[in-house]
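Much of our argument rests on the idea that a fold can be written as discrete symbols. In the encoding step, the backbone of a single protein was reduced to a row of integers, each denoting a local shape. We regard such an encoding as a compact summary of how the chain folds. The record that follows shows the chain in one-letter code together with its fold in token form:
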Amino acid sequence: MRLPHLAISGILLVTLAACGGRDITLRDLSNPAGGPEEFAIVPSKPLEMPERMDALPTPAPGSANRTDLTPKADAVAALGGNRALLGGEGIPAGDAGLVRHASRYGVPGGIRQTLAEEDRDFRTRKSRFTNIRLVRVDRYNQAYRRQTLDPYQALEAYRRAGAYTPSAPPSVE
């Protein structure tokens, strides 16, 4: 009499676990609390009154607004760069030597697409049995564990090689 109850419980458990979804993502970015999504809030730049109203550009559909966010330009300015060079095509003269040295062994074409496809295939392989679970678990760190760099091993390797390294807090192993 116990065997049918166990079989029914097992079937219910597998059925319930199969309701988890069919995505191939490993990172669980759900909002279980049901509160506001803090990443959906995008602050805008403060409104400002121009010095002369006749100096404003003519409004055009699809053109930028003075209060639109410019994250790339803001990041360049925050890191001490020149915003004016951001919109230009080509490589600035000051960076030509760096780019030439970095590409001395060749530059593969379509590297972003290649890496995206390889990562999608990797996530598909690693997430084959992740849809069967009772509790939502973030498996990102488990899946990419072999690809992470141990900072303390790297620090010790650089120190053994004689490179000057910054101080670091002790390892918590």
Summary: The mean pLDDT is 78. Residues 119 and 125 are 10 Å apart (CA to CA). DSSP finds six helices and no strands in the chain.
